[in-house]
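To: structure subgroup
Subject: Chain for Friday's discussion

All,

I'm putting the inputs and outputs inline so they're searchable in the archive.
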Amino acid sequence: MRWLDKTRIVLEMIKFEHSIFALPFALTGALLALRGAGLSAGEVAAKLAWIVLAMVAARSAAMAFNRVVDAEIDARNPRTSMRAIPAGQVSKRFTWGFIAVWSAVFVCAAAMLNPLCLALSPVALAIVCGYSYTKRFTSMAHLVLGLALGIAPAAAWIAVRGSADPAIWLLTAAVMLWVGGFDIIYACQDTDFDRSAGLYSLPSRLGPARSLLLARALHALMAGLLLLLWHEMGLGWIGLAGIAAVVALLIYEHSLVSADDLSKVNAAFFAVNGYVSVLFFLFWGVDIVWSGGLR
């Protein structure tokens, strides 16, 4: 099998297209940081391009790392046994090479942004890859995954400004709660398997019904943090409408699943959450640009 075919399989395995989950929040963080930064149009374009490349590279490396680390677990789980590595479609060796290439791309992109990004790049890789081990020892793995995606807007802010601002950590916390909530929903599918395999997840510990209630609580807290960030950043009614759109989508997401019926988890997880991040970015991006914030 040619390496291009193997690369295509790995990209399908890590669901490359789902980079859309965290990327809009990273771009929102970048736009917020660009307000009053005094950069030229060319500098802005270059910053955004390197941020996008860094985000895609980090996620690609982390997802492939997760598939390698979890290959034996995936092979035992009927829901995941046909993933590429346990199904023999691609080898661990090739996947490790894929991880090495994208990790190098991430570090190079970080170096092109600023010295602090380069210095923090190993920390970022440790967080996004380290998540893969957490379900072996803590039920809080869902929030660790949330942190792995949540650092994206803070990283984008640092990429633009070369330093962090306390307010941007509100967006990091909001994304962490959002991801943690929908990962709990997704994990409800594997409640019985996680218990039998000795893996830690909130559904295996609390049961699906209480876990779904907790996911709702996390998403309610997320909405509260977004409102606080909206106030701190001095945004207008368009940004507030974006929060309302996110809340409406989250309510719809939770309406699709129940402890007795998890048949629509994939629709809730993949489709709705993609809309959440994209709509949030569109509303907040328009608000920032409308107010002349990039000048």
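Points worth raising on Friday:
The chain is about 75% helix and 0% strand.
Residues 19-290 form a domain with the Tetracycline Repressor; domain 2 fold (CATH 1.10.357.140).

D.
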